Amino acid sequence: MGRSVLVIDTDPQANATIGLGVYPESVQKNIYHYYISHCSDSKSGTLLSDYIIKTISGVDLIASHLDLVGAEAVLYQNPDRYYILSTGINQIKNRYDHILIDTPPFLGQFMMNGMIAADHLVMVFSPDTFAIAGYDHLTMIIQDISEILGKKVRISLAILNRWGAPLGKPETLSEKIYDFFGLKKNHNIDSLNEIRTQLETRIRVEIPEVVIVHEGKEISQSNKQGIPLIVLAPDDPAVQGFKAASQIIDTLKPGGA
Known about the structure:
This protein is of the alpha/beta class. The protein is built from eleven helices and seven strands.
């Protein structure tokens, strides 16, 4: 789409980093080092721009690393810890059309930093038994953050990922573990279909923009090679959904307007 984009990976799993063709161990300076440099209320922390690298896709990246797990507790030394990322982004945001922040899927310093720094929230849902519980949990987190900021925080876009995936095979890590050990599951295909339907209905009422991304065939190869899916496999079933999501994101205005 011809936009300048920066991806900031703040998830210790580093999936966004790997998906952009960057091996975490190959990067000398990553988001872990940025956060550690701000582990106290000292003003001597490094600039976020010091950690930007180029990727083969043309997207700029601030990489993550598993070491980030160790920074969580240390950041409690900084009374302004929730605003570390937003402070850094404010210094570089005029360089980019879009800055995308990938946060961990659990509440902690890095999710809070990402949600506070963001103008808009995009939530990705997977079709599994934990989706509704996860949505309820995130809703409570958003309410807490709204109280901290003193302003309303909303999800602007929901992406229903792999929504066309068959329900007759394991899809999530927990389901794969159940299947591997031959344990009894507490759900069946009908109940999963019901959960999927209930969640989609609720999301379409509560979130202004909703995009369905169908099960892709070449996504794993796209991630391994660090090549955008639309370039590697433009006819992949997931491409249309991702294109629709990118077009919606491109229309979102700064400041959450």
